[in-house]
């Protein structure tokens, strides 16, 4: 009546990615099955095996989350090779997590490795066909590969599932602009019009009146819904293009002055660009001034929107990350935006926060008027990046960002002749270490605020400094309800007004 001894366990069925069912790391699924196949005589074997399995699963999930957090921190700091490494480690332990593939795709794109970025984006779309950001990653990779028509299709597929996504609409506009630029280059080279494509005229769907938006902030990636295991695979190629009855996407053509800037930047010798960025990284201001006097277009040498895909960071990013405050100030004086984006949508303020550069943070916010509310490709503000640091100084850096943001806000209000809100004055003074119990009358708060502002450096007003090209204002993302700025619109440096004061970062006072 005894059952024959079990000599081996059947091989578990493979998962969608080719790994055995019980083998998140690979190679151990059969061994676990063999150890769990024969229950102990007292009947406790099955329970013990199940407990061990749960413990191991929990451990792997924790390790994956830790690797993901390290990847996010590396991405925010501009260390994209490290970000790729950390996201790869996380993926090995959680191969069904679409967010990890999305994050690694963004990291590859920031490195200019668009083939790898595309592969990860397509995997993300297969895992989460109802998550719009995956289509955005695919569109960005295709744009980087010069496949503008396919990029347009990817963005439209994403808008079909998330019609309100400003990021997808912005990416769609960039893909169309890239197609137009390629057509212009073709005509300039061959003296005839390029073959026409319908992609430029493709329409984005009209967003519905009420569509729940995914929560923004540091946890936006983690909160993205994971599709059920049996979800239908709706890759971008399977999506139906929106009807032409929908509202047509309004994408303005490049302004002539911006077209001139783009042409000048694309004509730069890549060795000169590398030397320019290296000088910013090393703090060699004399070399930068000499190079800039010979070729002012170097001021605009960053990857996003140009053929310089290898330049993940602008000179301002490198100066901020390395604490080269004198370089930051000089670039601001030439008219360079403090909010310029790199290929990962990070601003110099993100780079400064990720690298723990307090001086760079102060210069960008107080002297440059940087916007502390802008989010990078991981949906993080500079404050989020600062808090996420593992060096023990995150809270101090976040406090610097909060203080400088409020001081800049107060300075802008003063310049405009506006009254100072009491709550803003109180918040700024408290962040500066003042004891609010010292003040009882509003006039005392105003006097203390005046003293605080007097102790801070003033805004740098761009003088042009020999730069003859206009500075494209393509960096700040519009708020919901505001009009999307036309891609490519710009204004000359000489006539540029100081950028608006940044909105204050959230603090305890609300």
Automatic annotation (TrEMBL):
Localisation: Cytoplasm
In what ranges is there compositional bias, type Low complexity? 35-49, 486-496
* GO terms under cellular component: cytoplasm
Q: Where is this region: Disordered?
A: 1-72, 189-247, 472-510
Q: Spell out the residue ranges that the record assigns to ANK repeats.
A: 311-343, 344-377
Q: Which UniProt keywords apply?
A: ANK repeat, Cytoplasm, Repeat, TPR repeat
GO molecular function terms here?
A: Hsp90 protein binding
Keyword Cytoplasm: yes or no? Answer: yes
From the Swiss-Prot or TrEMBL record, give the protein name.
Answer: Uncharacterized protein
Species lineage: Eukaryota, Viridiplantae, Chlorophyta, Mamiellophyceae, Mamiellales
